Automatic annotation (TrEMBL):
Residue numbers binding Zn(2+): 29, 32, 47, 50
Functional description taken from the UniProt entry: Stabilizes TBP binding to an archaeal box-A promoter. Also responsible for recruiting RNA polymerase II to the pre-initiation complex (DNA-TBP-TFIIB).
Family: Belongs to the TFIIB family.
Name of this protein: Transcription initiation factor IIB
N-terminal signal peptide: none
Stretches with biased composition (Polar residues): 82-97
Sequence repeats: 141-224, 235-316
Pfam families noted in UniProt: TFIIB (PF00382), Zn_Ribbon_TF (PF08271)
UniProt organism field: Natronococcus pandeyae
Length: 324
């Protein structure tokens, strides 16, 4: 009894000594015996005395983000993909891919394909459990489709999704189509974000006509109390200049023309899209860039007559605002 206890104690001591010696070897430089330190910035372990790189390309097991206080750390900490308002369930449900292949890229057998199809069907039923969720799923898909066609950024899509959710919660949809409210939400979100699109552009990608869009838009704005400022013609200028492949000098000149027109009161009662298109056309003429009224008309989706009328007014306002 006593001998076995002694033997067990001896083995434990030997194991502890081996572990200690291995740890000491890792903490000592193999060349000079100096102390080694971990350089997290360069992912290396180096000797503090001689500078020998003991290990390199270490794996950083920490997060990819930085936090400067406890609150920020708790806010950024996450598991899985971030939630988004662009999905009816905020992206918290499971998605089953449509490809009938396994993790190695091999095709599934007939029996497995049938099983996966049943799982997809039940998963879809669980994701949309009532009419409200089905409504939301259809509307958010419509918003994403139109935003993609118009080239609108993610923040506009998120804002439009929030506006539609509010309209649904406040029971504003009865008597109005899902597509009409979704289109109005996207139009309002684009104007709020400073990346407006004209009614004609929105109508071109929407499933509702212009009359229904304007009527639903006014109703949504009024009932939700949204603060949407009048569209600024300068917000349209960068997109028109980019689509026409014009220079930065032309863009600056167009902004100057619009500033002069604002000082002279030309903006009042005029379509911001027409003013922006006319300013780009006039600026192109002043900077000797080749662009026709038809080119600008196609990009801005307005008539050439509007461009002719507005660009003359802009030039007159610029002459009036110029110092004598």
């Amino acid at each position: 009894m006593t001998d076995s206890n002694l033997r067990t104690y001896t083995r434990e001591n030997e194991t502890e000594e081996e572990t200690t010696s291995q740890a000491d070897e890792r903490e000592q430089c193999p060349e000079c015996g100096g102390r080694v330190i971990s350089d997290a910035e360069h992912a290396e372990t180096v000797c503090e005395d001689c500078g020998l790189v003991v290990e390199e390309d270490e794996i950083d097991r920490g997060p990819e983000w930085r936090a400067f206080d406890a609150a920020e750390k708790d806010e950024k900490s996450r598991v899985g993909a971030p939630t988004t308002n662009m999905m009816h369930d905020q992206g918290l449900s499971t998605n089953i891919g449509w490809q009938d292949k396994d993790a190695y890229g091999k095709s599934l057998s007939s029996r497995q394909r049938q099983k996966m199809q049943r799982l997809r069907t039940w998963n879809e039923r669980f994701r949309t459990r009532d009419s409200k969720e089905r409504n939301l799923k259809q509307a958010l898909g419509e918003i994403d489709r139109m935003a993609s066609a118009l080239g609108l950024p993610e923040n506009v899509r998120e804002t439009a999704s929030v506006i539609y959710r509010r309209a649904l919660e406040e029971d504003l949809l009865p008597g109005r189509s899902i597509e009409g409210v979704a289109t109005s939400s996207l139009y309002a979100a684009a104007r709020q974000a400073g990346t407006p699109r004209s009614l004609d552009e929105i109508s071109a990608v929407s499933r509702v006509d212009k009359m229904e869009l304007t009527r639903t838009y006014r109703y949504i704005i009024r009932e939700l109390g949204l603060e949407v400022q009048p569209a600024d013609p300068e917000n349209y200028v960068p997109r028109f200049v980019s689509d026409l492949d014009l220079s930065d000098e032309t863009e600056r000149m167009a902004r100057d023309l619009l500033d002069s027109a604002r000082e002279e009161g030309v903006h009042s009662g005029k379509s911001p899209v027409g003013l922006a298109a006319a300013a780009v056309y006039a600026a192109a003429l002043l900077t000797n860039e080749k662009v026709t009224q038809n080119d600008v008309s196609e990009v801005a989706s307005i008539s050439e007559v509007t461009i002719r009328n507005r660009y003359k007014e802009l030039l007159e306002a610029s002459d009036s605002a110029a110092p004598a």
